[in-house]
Amino acid sequence: MFRRLSPIAVALSFLLAAPPARAHDWNAKQIHWVGFTQGLKLARKKHKPICLIIFTEWCPHCRNYATVFHDPRVVREARKFVMIHVDKDKHPDISRRFAPDGEYIPRTYFLDYHGDLHSELRAPQEQYSYFYDELDPRSILAGMKRAAKALH
């Protein structure tokens, strides 16, 4: 009378019943995030450097990293930049364009107002040079301060 379901059928039923993934909370209420093309135009117009973050919605490190943008010090420092975030899955061409040491996520780059990458502005580590501490806002804050000084 009862039919035994395969493990694949059980897994699929859980996936189909799960609520859709929610976007990470990058603090859009306090930080003006823009898309890539709009951000490049805005940076040129305002002569402001760019902070570019490449992420995905499914990445737990990205979810953690998004929380550091709620720190009031990071919010203040973000005002010195055109803040761009790009979903790697939706814009693989942009992700490939900005991948000097691989396409890991999240990655944070600092660009001048022309949109040129300044590869010397990176996290203080050998491997994954553009991966800032996902839990401690002091990491990206230090990177933003170095970039603001170098690019203004």
Q: Strands of the biggest beta sheet: in what spatial order?
A: 1-3-2-4
Q: How many domains comprise the coordinates?
A: 1
Helix and strand succession?
Answer: HEHEHHEHEH
Name the quaternary structure. Answer: single chain
Can you count the beta strands? 4
Please name the CATH architecture. Answer: 3-Layer(aba) Sandwich
Question: What radius of gyration results from the CA coordinates?
Answer: 18 Å
SS summary, helix count: 6
* CATH homologous superfamily descriptor: Glutaredoxin
Overall 3D geometry?
globular
- For this structure, what is the CATH class? Alpha Beta
Helix content: 25-40%
**Taking all residues together, what is the mean pLDDT?**
88
Structural class: alpha/beta
3D architecture notes:
The protein is an alpha/beta fold and 152 residues long. It is 38% helix and 12% strand. The protein is built from six helices and four strands, in the order H-E-H-E-H-H-E-H-E-H. The protein has a four-stranded mixed beta sheet with strand order 1-3-2-4. Helix 4 packs parallel to helix 6. Mean pLDDT is 88; it is low at 7-22.
Core attributes:
single chain, 152 residues, alpha/beta, Glutaredoxin, 4-stranded mixed sheet, 4 strands, 12% strand
